[in-house]
Amino acid sequence: MASAKIKKGDTVVVLSGKDKGKTGTVAKVSPKDGKVVVEGVNIAARHRKPTQQNPQGGIDRFEAPMPISKVAVADPKDGKPTRVRFEEKDGKKVRVAVKSGETIDG
């Protein structure tokens, strides 16, 4: 299986949609579904009826999964979106930002 280019804990930039340009940290990655959950981005609201467990009811807000193709890793140098490639450094496979050549720790 190929290594993932976006991993949990990475800082990413949203490329399209209502949250275009926002940055956030990856909270969860689902490679099988091709989805990613980013903290503070793609907030969805779910209206809940009052129940015995939650007598108040109300609106639950949560981060919804979004397609992995809509986000790009933020360049460690300037924070702008960049593609990722893999290189071998000191016998280890590391992720490198294409724009700046900086290694991405993750």
Automatic annotation (TrEMBL):
Top-rank taxon, per record: Bacteria
Any one cellular-component term (Gene Ontology): ribosome
All copies of domain KOW, residue ranges: 5-32
Keyword annotations: Ribonucleoprotein, Ribosomal protein, RNA-binding, rRNA-binding
Region of interest called Disordered, as start-end residue ranges on this chain: 71-106
Pfam annotation, one family: KOW
Keyword Metal-binding: no
Keyword Ribosomal protein: yes
Record CDD domains: KOW_RPL26
InterPro entries, per database record: KOW (IPR005824), Rib_uL2_dom2 (IPR014722), Ribosomal_uL24 (IPR003256), Ribosomal_uL24_C (IPR057264), Ribosomal_uL24_CS (IPR005825), Ribosomal_uL24_KOW (IPR041988), Translation_prot_SH3-like_sf (IPR008991)
Biased composition (Basic and acidic residues): 75-93
PROSITE patterns for the chain: RIBOSOMAL_L24
Matches recorded under PANTHER family: MITOCHONDRIAL RIBOSOMAL PROTEIN L24
Primary role: One of two assembly initiator proteins, it binds directly to the 5'-end of the 23S rRNA, where it nucleates assembly of the 50S subunit. One of the proteins that surrounds the polypeptide exit tunnel on the outside of the subunit.
Family per record: Belongs to the universal ribosomal protein uL24 family.
Quaternary structure, from the entry: Part of the 50S ribosomal subunit.
Name of the protein in question: Large ribosomal subunit protein uL24
Biological classification of the source: Bacteria, Pseudomonadati, Pseudomonadota, Alphaproteobacteria, Sphingomonadales
Gene: rplX
